[in-house]
Amino acid sequence: MSASAPRPHVMALLFDTDFNRPSGTRAFRHLDGRPFTEEEQALADDATLEELQAAGVHVHNSEAGAKAKAAAHHMAELLFKYVLPHGEALIPFMTHEDMLEYGRLDSIIAAGAGPLRPHKD
Length: 121
Prior knowledge:
Helix content: 40-55%
Number of strands: 2
Number of helices: 5
Structural class: mainly alpha
Distance between the termini: 59 Å
Radius of gyration: 25 Å
Oligomer: single chain
Low-confidence stretches: none
């Protein structure tokens, strides 16, 4: 799979592909339900990531998924750095149910996890 320009014949086939197929099968069908011929299946199997993405197909990329998960974790840590000392500033933006849950969790933290609470200077 090289980073070259999309091939028109492959793109035409991909735009006429029903990607909602039963899990566990690699057999594609046309939008009208006709199964792919062996030649069409070979073209689809040989499609590059760029061609699939250009056709609007979501392609699972485990490396990108792992990076996204790590970035989300790091972002949460960064947010906690600011939220923990200033959590009460978020209360006006919360739903009533979330405010009640925030208060419940805050009381649990106050009762037993003193070191987690920010020091007030």
